[in-house]
From TrEMBL:
Protein's UniProt name: Oxidoreductase
Organism: Pseudoduganella armeniaca
Sites marked Lowers pKa of active site Tyr: 74
Residues at the catalytic site: 49 (proton donor)
One Pfam family matching this protein: Aldo_ket_red
Domain NADP-dependent oxidoreductase: 16-259
UniProtKB keywords: NADP, Oxidoreductase
Amino acid sequence: AIPMIEMNDGHRIPQLGLGVWQDDDAQAAAAVRCALQAGYRLVDTASIYENEAGVGNGVRESGIERAEVFVTTKIWNADQGYQAAQDALHASLERLGMDYVDLLLIHWPVPSRDLYVETWRALIKLREQGLARSIGVSNFRADELHRLFKETGQLPAVNQIELHPWLQQGELRTANGVHGVRTQAWSPLGQGKVLADPLIAGLAAKHAKEPAQIILRWHIQHGVLVIPKSANPERIRANADIFDFVLDEDDMAALAELDRGQRIGPDPATFGA
Ligand code: A2P
């Protein structure tokens, strides 16, 4: 079974879930149904993915009760601000066909616009209203987390960041950890690009697992939350089949050597400006 991890607000989150970026509504619905039937209990979408309706349909069609499923969505950059962010969640809930989300994230800080603190105040209100059970951020750096805390007294439950063997984010994982903010990895497989790394292939052969399973297991053993994206039923199932083996110390040390500070996605310092 997929481990449940406690967050700093007392709620629990599945350590592994399904990503649906780049799926259309029909693909998202099919992927969500497949994943929930395979034992997943978390789906990570965003308003900018334009597939929240598909995610909602997939959850309803799965036969798994809404209360058993952990649904994350995100406030897009253009919807930052105290009122706009609240309106954006209402629109997301409408598309999802749900009356709450389990986790609501600010998708990017967009430091140049300097609206993320006001947006964070909106998320605090939405949590008080029960429309978002937990609230967090994505792509925030340590100084931005500190500012949220300094100005509102409230820390995010989660900081979802680009994280994979080529971008291991040691400092930011530590900064999250000291504040009890859970680190969640987006593109945990480096959008699939890290799968071909020869070291990963060697470990896959050693453990009789697939490259993706080696990388996801590495995240899990670091205590990181992961949301691998797949639209393929076999790969969806394989990505959750990682709780029957353990990477040893030598494996973990070898994987640590792959860190090269290489982003595949945008730089949060400038994205959305
Ligand atoms: P697909 O949807 O066709 O399975 P990330 O989550 O790091 O962004 O990676 C997602 C990419 O990796 C997608 O292109 C996805 O393709 C691919 N992918 C996901 N799981 C696997 C897997 N187990 N083996 C190979 N490729 C995978």
